[in-house]
Protein: Purple acid phosphatase
Organism: Lupinus luteus
Amino acid sequence: MGVRSLISLVFLIFGFFEFDVVYSYTRPPPGKTIFTPQSDDDSSPEQVHIYQVGQDKMGISWITQSSTPSTVQYGLTPSGNNTASGLTNSYRYLLYKSGEIHNAVIGPLKSNTVYYYRLGNSPKGYSFKTAPSQFPIKFAVSGDLGQTEWTQLTLDHINKSNYDMLLLPGDLSYADHLQHRWDSFGRLVEPLASQRPWMVTQGNHEVEKIPLLHREPFTAYNARWKMPYEDSGSDSNLYYSFDVAGVHVIMLGSYTDFDSESEQYKWLEGDLKKVNRKNTPWLVVLVHAPWYNSNTAHQDEKESVKMKDSMEDLLYQARIDVIFEGHVHAYERFTRVYKDKEDKCGPIYINIGDGGNKEGLATEYIDPKPEISLFREANFGHGTLEMFNATHALWNWHKNDNDEAVVSDSVWLTNLSLETSCKV
């Protein structure tokens, strides 16, 4: 029996109970999935992506199908002679064994600067640009990417946006237990992810736990997309925070423990206490399962309802500026909200789970539209968040329309620290 047949049989027996997923709508037909093939050279680096580490370092991850050194040669020119060594690991999942997964951290690096690099023994050259150390900074934001023709269109549009860093609120590859799909996804996003830092958190499609056969969740995600969680005092790759150019970004984990006794809750509580709004005036949070959502999809799931009940007070009291959510395959922007009501001191919630997944769009919304929901549309696309200074930022949602990135929703954001009545 092949891996695909084995997985299908397991889920026929056990069902999808581990996710508590509620589908209250009929999805449109699936989009056409694309597969990005492997190079003929087993020693050639592939699936290259970079991620920010601290204020002045960059993590680089890549995979080879044969054993090669985990070394990086880098500098301000293609012949740069700075070197760094990293670590190599691999993992098994049922009958699948991954290639050699390399991770190395390079630096210190100058901000807002182009660096050139080569990996292992390969002569192939890459380059990336570090993020700025001060305003302005431009984020691309896209969730539930997958690897379909819709995904490719979204990536093409993001690539043209001149972004400094990408933020992804979960559901990356939609491999769904088929590990070669993780490889295909890594190759698909490499042209972008090898040039700008991608900071991600996990979604339900990253869990990949199979009763009896593979009990450990997040095996592929944790091995392939290691984030700098240790730098923020986190004990888990599923939640962490980092600072960049006056912005404190918090990545939360919807699919690990989040009650008031959990390690994640205690970490978040401590992380928020360390925030200095003079150094990082903007506070941004990403989470996969949405706390606010007027789409008929994914209503009343425990990862949304119970996590909101547990953590909403923490984020409200910290005066978070904006919270990006995924999971729902459509776009929606809320006003500033707290406890289900408009509140000028609450965060703006934006659902951006419309990157291009294989399951299609969530086209049905609750009617009438709640007053707290300001804009909603079922379309694939991405967003850009541009912080111009410590007080004002511009959010644009670009929908994929006629092969062009059309700005369909746009709003100026004012930093909550300016609202004197919201001082804590």
User: Anything to note?
Assistant: Residues 302-317 form the longest helix (16 residues). The CA atoms of residues 417 and 423 lie 7 Å apart.
